[in-house]
Write a structure and sequence with these properties.
Choline-sulfatase; arylsulfatase activity; 2 domains; single chain; four-stranded antiparallel beta sheet; eleven-stranded mixed beta sheet; choline-sulfatase activity; Sulfatase_N; about 475 residues
């Protein structure tokens, strides 16, 4: 009986800790800002100019970071794409909504997304690019996912793929490709990877994939310039197959072919981000628009090991629980609101997008909606009003059929991780003294490891309650 009471008290405590505040600073609906969420795919912390890469050309992202805020410690909720994408839209850890790895489920309609929230505030909502949290074609059949397109989650319009495509000529398997997806020269996954509002697309699909996506974003922005809008733009670059056009590869004459393609496709994506920023200024709506950018996880395993992609000075890469797997490049711009040249070392995360946007637009949840929200409002951090690094952050990635059950928690300056591999070790690091995770302290400080192990177990138990139905209506 005592254990049951303790569990009930703990559950209420978790809900209290992670629920979005019911009373948020209200915003005038007529002044509600536009929201643009940009995300790259497998772009490492070190694969952008504003984080110190002196070779890779990302002038528009660099300008965006300089004109707003650069997040020096921004975390993806998982070290791979699908779980992180769900966290961006829901403000919740992936273990809550049940997408634990790539192609291992789809977004549940019982989740409340940023798009659904903003629709209630009168926003037009559009999604563009790589969805990867559910199939986008109703007749797709797979053993690890199901049909759950953007239109099921609050988006009025969408132009989307279920998963990865080549970053140049996305309908065709690249000539030198020797992995999953198709044989060189054959149609990529049937040749019609994009779906627009339920219909397969067969026009304007040649050349740079980032440009193909932006060709659909710009008309949406123009059509909705007189009303508030949400544009969620999730690029495929620089996820493999990584291919760049000749004009972008020529920008890196001293690089090998793999780096020419990798750097070239990032520069091509950056060019399209610049095109979007220019359009906002042409329409005179840049001061009414907040633009947020991040990557979905660390850099590709193989490309990192080959010295092409980079997590900067941090240990690890995609699919690992080390900093290099979850620490990503991120910045935000909102002229007239976010002071140029702002930087922060406060640990922020993709789960923070929803509560931040909720606060900005003055959205309050109903009193009946007590589901845990794991993120925080980032505006006090951006304004320098909060330097608090004490909150806990939970990361996870699970594929039990391969023995993979990677988890990590950051609590204050301490990080405990369970390696994402079969029989992976548990390791303890002090990120304040050892940000590059060189010295495992788990044997030297067993009491500290046990403290974090307990907090991790409590968070995981809370997430399992959510995942098993506590947060959904029956």
């Amino acid at each position: 009986m005592n254990q049951l009471i303790i569990a009930q008290v703990f559950c209420l405590t978790i809900v209290s800790m992670y629920s979005l505040p019911q009373s948020l600073a209200m915003a005038d609906d007529t002044e509600s800002p536009n929201v643009i969420l940009l995300m790259s795919d497998d772009q490492g912390w070190g694969d952008v100019g504003f984080n110190g890469n002196a070779v890779l050309q990302t002038p528009h992202l660099d300008a965006m970071a300089a004109g707003g805020v650069r997040f020096d410690r921004f975390y993806a909720a998982a070290p791979l794409c699908s779980p992180t994408r769900g966290s961006c839209l829901t403000g919740r850890y992936p273990f809550r909504f049940g997408i634990l790895a790539a192609h291992t489920g789809g977004m549940r309609v019982g989740e409340n997304t940023i798009a659904e929230m903003l629709k209630k505030k009168g926003y037009a909502t559009g999604f563009f690019g790589k969805w990867h949290i559910g199939w986008v074609k109703p007749d797709e059949v797979g053993t690890r996912g199901f049909y759950s397109p953007p239109s099921h989650h609050g988006f009025d319009q969408y132009f989307a793929t279920t998963s990865a495509v080549p970053t140049w000529n996305p309908r065709v398997t690249p000539a030198d490709w020797d992995s999953w997806g198709g044989k060189p020269g054959d149609p990529w996954k049937g040749g019609f990877p994009y779906v627009q509002d339920g219909v397969e697309v067969n026009e304007n699909l040649q050349g740079d994939d980032s440009r193909i996506i932006m060709d659909r974003v710009i008309p949406f922005v123009q059509a909705n310039q007189a009303k508030p809008f949400l544009a969620t733009v999730w690029f495929h670059s620089p996820h493999e197959p990584v291919v760049a056009g000749d004009e972008y590869k020529k920008l890196y004459p001293k690089a090998g072919s793999k780096r020419q393609n990798y750097y070239g496709c990032i520069t091509a994506m950056d060019e399209q981000i610049g095109r979007l920023r220019k359009k906002l200024r042409e329409l005179d709506i840049e001061k009414k628009t907040i633009v947020l950018f991040c990557s979905d996880n660390g850099p590709s395993d193989g490309l990192t090991k080959k010295g092409v992609a980079s997590a900067g000075p941090f240990k690890g890469h995609k699919h690992t629980m080390y900093e290099g797997g979850v620490l990503v490049p991120a910045c935000a711009e909102w002229p007239g609101v976010i002071a140029p040249g702002t930087t922060t070392n406060v640990r922020c995360s993709t789960v923070d997008f929803l509560p931040t946007i909720a606060s900005i637009v003055g959205y309050s949840r109903s009193k009946k909606d007590t589901r845990p929200i794991d993120g925080i409002d980032l505006m006090p951090v951006i304004r320098g009003e909060s330097q608090n690094n004490d909150r806990s952050l939970f990361f996870g990635y699970r594929r039990l059929h391969q023995g993979i059950d990677g988890k990590a928690i950051i609590s204050g300056d301490w990080k405990l991780l369970q390696e994402a591999k079969k029989n992976g070790r548990t390791r303890l690091y002090n990120l304040a003294n050892d940000p590059f995770e060189k010295k495992d302290l788990s044997d030297e400080m067993p009491e500290q490891a046990d403290r974090l192990r307990k907090k991790l177990s409590e968070l995981e138990a809370s997430c399992q309650r959510s995942r098993d139905g506590a947060d959904y209506r029956f």
